[in-house]
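Batch manifest, entry 17 of 40.
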Amino acid sequence: MILVGVLALPALGALLLALLPAHLDRSARWVGVAVTAATFLVSLALLDGRSSGAKGDWQHVDVRWVPAIDLRFHLGVDGISLPLVVLTTLLTLLCAIYTVHSLPAPGRAGTMLALVLVLEVGMVGTFLARDLLLFFVFFEVVLAPMYFLIAVWGGPQARHAATKFVLYTLLGSVLLLVGLLTVYAAAGTLDMVALAHAHGSGIARSTQGAAFLLLFAGLAVKSPLWPVHTWLPDAHTEAPTVGSVLLAGVLLKMGTYGLIRVALPIVPAGAERFAPLLAVLAVAGIGVGTLACFTQTDLKRLVAYSSVGHMGFVLLGISTLSEVGVQAALFGNIAHGVITSLLFFAVGGIKERFRTSEMAAIGGGLAKRLPRLGALLTLAAVASLGLPGLAGFWGEAFAVLAAYRPAASLDRTLYLTLAVLAAVGAALAAAYFLRMLRSVVAGPPPAAAQHAAAVPDASPVELLAWAPLALLGVVLGLYPALVLDLTKPAVALLVTALPG
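Output type: structure tokens
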């Protein structure tokens, strides 16, 4: 009932908000907060050891759906998926709280929050699905609501950015679907649990290789991984703050989660064959994302390109086919979701006040002009650059460590070279974030600011929405076992079945 409830609550909430009259705008905002809060509390109930897979076991809801093709409404949760479920429900709640303070034009809180709740259904469903076709359905549910969030509530080029997002993700979806059907044709089942337990037996190695490439290509677009990342900066630049937070915090994780949940255990021979390619693409993404950040003058585009680099570390961890690497990827997903969401909240607050996210137009001295907002932006930036003691450090450090010691069947010389290049990329990330902080937070404010009307600092509602992320960024940095202990049993079972 908990697994069904965490999907049913936002679905019913979306229906209720869609039916609310337009003039009940304020009420719609509080309904959104109430529904997302209830969903978050239900998701916390999954933290019970018996439901979270403390021994690596699955917990299921399994109902026959389309008997003709043995399609089942099959949900489950374990240590791999649970942290992402909780992160999703938390971020959706914080976005709903943020709308109480701020709602971009054209308003219509009920419609916007209904789309957010449909988005939550798709995101959570992706992490809970245990049937390949059901996984694909939930994976695609997020497409329409994110398109409308960007196109209707976004910036001046919102429709172009939303269309680009849809075209790229549709292409990825076609490749993903072909990959899933390839697995079904070879194995004769859509049951992800049975397929994972079979470890690729019954599927020819050549078929596994083809399926893995198709699955990887489809999932890479959603992450997005280099070189299919070019839709991301435009989408983030034009999206409203809530859209950017959910896009960066959760949607980008669906692709790398799919690699861990679907590709690695179901077609392990394909994963072993193409792991070096994944590693090379990962480090290329780290380099491209890092270098692109040095040329950015817009805060939102800078954070977007930094995400390309951070997701490269996640992919590098996956490509090692080792327990440390997969743990690094899962922790990196959570840390990036927390930190980048805080970054986009802070940048959204800045853009709302200054009507721009261009660093030159904002000027310096944010620490003096808006001390609370400047402090949050600083905390998020130093966490993102990987400062030890904050959440961003562990995922990247473990990914480099895993590349130093990949699975025995992989070329260690190649991975050692890639580990060095990835470490250089992490060091350069510190440089571009420090450059941004020097430009926006430190230094004297522009002369025009002395004669301009006072700009309000972060409001109590904004702080309520942002504080949990700031706290998590510190707690996960000081105590990473909070996530690692949860994911370890399920990861150990997954890696045991991998080659090498």
